[in-house]
């Protein structure tokens, strides 16, 4: 799919530019040819203006004129040869080649699936960010205005897509927009009558399923349970388990930029310098921002430079492919709409930069990140396209599995142990959207180029930390790049020891 990463979308844009330029050359070429043909015809017409050429007498008179005879010979030899030659080359092949991406770095044309994916991304953005349909159709996406407007036909397509997803409320909104636009356009792209048929169907479906298609985040308020976090101390109690509906409502609210923590709690969250128990960092302390106390959620600022980011993206670009998620019951890995991005993996041995970033993560976390020792996974680089997202999930792979499910997991994973912690570099700022939201903590980390987020997915006891549920909010504008270093459990047994209580 080309819609799942900015990297590929950018390539498709430049492919289209090459196609358009080939088309424009084609038009120039065809015009030149037509001109030559017209010239041929005109010359003939000039001759025939002297009389009707079909009449034998005129023809004999023309043939008897040496200049006419010369012109006749020239027309049927040189001129004709030119006409014949020019029709032999088919400039349409250049257009076809441009479309096929010949000479363009192997970019492939988008297909039906890509169109569906792009429409799905719009539906998702609409939903999560509660965007206004009319504004969206007029090119205003979350306050950013562009010339990219939707026609009545586009809105009809969006309505059909929403309908097929069972989002009847949304479908009605899109069809209503299509109806209004068809009126404004004078039924140019689609007629109001055509839209009406769909509108009626969608209204009927909505009447039949009045509760079935609640769009979470639109009708629901976020859970008040996270507001339990009144007590601003590291030991405050919090709700670690919410219902899926509450999780989704909180996630959407956080994505939209709402703060779900109390003011008193937020007041305890300070930025500070920290040497993290590392002698090197004693000389140059880390700039740490606290987002949550327990479980602890931190970001380290200015931990990867712009040059390093550029280099990392270059290293990862050839390796990017559609991200996978664990299959049902831990079986295999599959592509899924719950995670739309492209990822690539880089080994420490591949480039000194990768090894350096691993070492940096080790200093900042106090954990061992050696890939060759099986202490951590390779570095993952991820690029999200527009609407790219990752639904709320836990990063751990094993602790939530049953005995039976563990049988489906590769034995190597069991040797490495679970993903004890996540260290994630932000490789870009994102114009709109793209936060990493923690619905059970009631807070979100906003991408800031050069920083890195860090949290433990497991408690000291080795149990899964349910509260670390998190997801990537859809990207609305701009591009989002992150890089994950997942640190495994086995290598840390001396670095992170048990606490006194099994709940720690
Ligand atoms: O991209 C993000 O903000 C989060 C990504 C994430 O949670 C993951 O890759 O596991
Ligand atoms: Fe994650």
UniProtKB/TrEMBL annotation:
Chief place of localization: endoplasmic reticulum
Keyword Endoplasmic reticulum on entry: yes
Molecular function via GO: iron ion binding; L-ascorbic acid binding; procollagen-proline 4-dioxygenase activity
Cell location: Endoplasmic reticulum lumen
UniProt-listed InterPro entries: Oxoglu/Fe-dep_dioxygenase_dom, P4H_N, P4HA-like, Pro_4_hyd_alph, Pro_4_hyd_alph_FE2OG_OXY, TPR-like_helical_dom_sf
Keywords assigned: Dioxygenase, Endoplasmic reticulum, Glycoprotein, Iron, Metal-binding, Oxidoreductase, Signal, Vitamin C
Matches recorded under Gene3D superfamilies: 6.10.140.1460, q2cbj1_9rhob like domain, Tetratricopeptide repeat domain
Cofactors (names): L-ascorbate
E.C. numbers: 1.14.11.2
Family matches, as PANTHER family: PROLYL 4-HYDROXYLASE ALPHA SUBUNIT, PROLYL 4-HYDROXYLASE SUBUNIT ALPHA-2
Protein name according to UniProt: procollagen-proline 4-dioxygenase
Species this chain originates from: Scylla paramamosain (Mud crab)
Organism classification: Eukaryota, Metazoa, Ecdysozoa, Arthropoda, Crustacea
């Amino acid at each position: 799919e080309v819609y799942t990463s900015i990297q590929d979308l950018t390539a498709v844009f430049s492919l289209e530019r090459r196609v358009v330029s080939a088309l424009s050359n084609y038009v120039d070429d065809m015009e030149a040819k037509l001109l030559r043909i017209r010239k041929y015809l005109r010359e003939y017409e000039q001759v025939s203006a002297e009389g009707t050429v079909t009449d034998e007498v005129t023809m004999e008179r023309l043939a008897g004129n040496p200049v006419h005879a010369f012109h006749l010979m020239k027309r049927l030899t040189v001129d004709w040869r030119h006409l014949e030659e020019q029709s032999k080359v088919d400039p349409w092949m250049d257009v076809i080649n441009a479309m096929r991406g010949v000479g363009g770095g192997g970019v492939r044309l988008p297909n039906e699936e890509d169109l569906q994916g792009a429409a799905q991304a719009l539906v998702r953005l609409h939903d999560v960010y509660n965007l206004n349909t009319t504004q969206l159709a007029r090119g205003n996406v979350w306050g950013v205005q562009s010339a990219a407007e939707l026609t009545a036909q586009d809105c009809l397509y969006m309505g059909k897509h929403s309908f097929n997803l069972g989002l009847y409320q949304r479908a009605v909104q899109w069809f209503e927009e299509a109806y209004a636009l068809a009126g404004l356009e004078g039924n140019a792209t689609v007629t109001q009558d055509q839209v009406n048929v769909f509108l009626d169907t969608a209204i009927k479906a909505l009447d039949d399923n009045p509760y079935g298609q609640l769009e979470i985040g639109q009708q629901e308020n976020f859970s008040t349970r996270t507001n339990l976090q009144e007590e601003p101390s590291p030991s405050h109690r919090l709700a670690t388990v919410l219902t899926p509906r509450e999780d989704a409502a909180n996630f959407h609210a956080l994505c939209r930029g709402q703060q779900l923590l109390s003011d008193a709690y937020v007041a305890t969250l300070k930025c500070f310098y920290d040497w993290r128990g590392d002698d090197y960092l004693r000389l140059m302390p880390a700039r740490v921002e606290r987002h949550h106390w327990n479980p602890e959620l931190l970001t380290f600022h200015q931990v990867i430079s712009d040059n390093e980011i550029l280099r990392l993206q270059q290293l990862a670009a050839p390796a990017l492919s559609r991200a996978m998620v664990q299959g049902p019951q831990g079986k295999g890995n599959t592509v899924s709409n719950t995670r739309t991005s492209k990822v690539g993996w880089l080994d420490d041995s591949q480039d000194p930069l990768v090894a350096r970033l691993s070492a940096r993560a080790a200093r900042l976390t106090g954990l061992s990140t050696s890939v060759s020792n099986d202490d951590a996974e390779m570095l993952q680089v991820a690029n999200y396209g527009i609407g790219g997202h990752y639904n709320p999930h836990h990063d751990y792979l094993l602790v939530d599995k049953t005995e039976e499910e563990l049988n489906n997991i590769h034995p190597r994973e069991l040797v490495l142990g679970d993903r004890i912690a996540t260290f994630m570099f932000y490789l870009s700022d994102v114009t709109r959207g793209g936060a990493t939201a923690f619905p059970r903590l009631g807070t979100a980390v906003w991408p800031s180029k050069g920083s890195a987020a860090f949290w433990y997915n497991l408690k000291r006891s080795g149990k899964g930390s349910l509260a670390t549920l998190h997801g990537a909010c859809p990207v609305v504008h701009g591009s989002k790049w992150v890089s994950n270093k997942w640190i495994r459990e086995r290598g840390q047994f001396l670095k992170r020891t048990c606490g006194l209580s099994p709940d720690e």
